[in-house]
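Inverse folding, one chain.
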């Protein structure tokens, strides 16, 4: 999982919606490409309650998981950001997860509530 963003294996082939599709040689995981699974996961990070769950399971203390979150920073690049449904909250969560203090603080119900409120307010402003 220590692949760098610059060497991410997203296929150059695109579906009619513009999303990357698997090539014949790209490995599938349960019928999905690696990119599709990573996209689904990174979007889930926009949910403060999910972040709290990850922290409660001690995943945010696991060095391998922290490295994976660092790897997912490739979603900050415009060619990948365009696939995010809610880029603002998703990228903000990904940014915050790079900070050790935040990974500790997200265990607090007050932090979760504050982040949930900020996310809700941001989504209302973008409508």
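Residues assigned per position:
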């Amino acid at each position: 999982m220590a692949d760098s963003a610059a060497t991410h294996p997203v296929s150059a082939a695109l579906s009619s919606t513009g999303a990357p599709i698997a090539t014949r040689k790209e490995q599938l995981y349960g019928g999905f490409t690696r990119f599709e699974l990573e996209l689904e996961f990174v979007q889930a990070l926009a949910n403060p309650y999910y972040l709290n769950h990850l922290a409660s399971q001690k995943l945010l203390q696991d060095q391998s998981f922290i490295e994976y979150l660092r790897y997912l920073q490739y979603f900050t690049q415009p060619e990948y950001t365009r696939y995010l449904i809610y880029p603002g909250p998703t990228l903000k969560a990904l940014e915050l997860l790079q900070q050790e203090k935040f990974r500790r603080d997200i265990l607090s119900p007050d932090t979760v509530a504050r982040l949930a409120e900020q996310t809700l307010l941001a989504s209302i402003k973008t409508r």
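Confidence is low (pLDDT under 50) at residues 1-7. Residues 109-125 form the longest helix (17 residues).
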